[in-house]
Amino acid sequence: MEPATSGQHQNGEYGIFSNGNIELPVDTSEVTLHLKPRSHISMLVHRNRDDEQLRLYLVSAYDEMRSPWRRWLLARKLRAISLVKCRGPGWCESVQSSLDSYDIQSKASSHRPSRALVQYVGNIVSEDPEYGLEFMESWWMAPLIMVCLLGMLLATIFALWYGHHFGDYSGGFTIAAYSAGLLSTVLVLLQVAVAARP
Fold it and tell me: What is the pTM of this model?
């Protein structure tokens, strides 16, 4: 869903927009979503929606806030959401809340829809607009391990080929070891570089 510009209102279940100065509809609250290092957008929370709809929209917003670099090259995934209070531009302080135990990856029951999360978030941001939600990420080890294993496999194949072709298995495995080490170093530097980008 595209962000709505100032003066526009989206008719969806939740609205995401980048600029303020929008007259809020009845039973809605505006909450700012943050993603380190410097990404943030605003979202309308409709209190007549249920928690599962809010969860799905938060996950969608998280995907939209990540740049293509972070989406395709950074091995990190959404772990949780945290309540934060903005103290200034780019400075948000984590606040202990019931959101700390909320599992954003688990689908809510469709048999008994709950609005506890929607009401909680709406009440918090209505009382103090400085409150917002921050997406918390964790390292996704599976793709990193797969890349490392693939690199080791290719290095081993190269070492065997080199030893068979040149009759020097020791040299082949030495080259393979240096290549695997170089691959690991490049992979780590790439993750650090992409993580520092907004």
Answer: 0.71
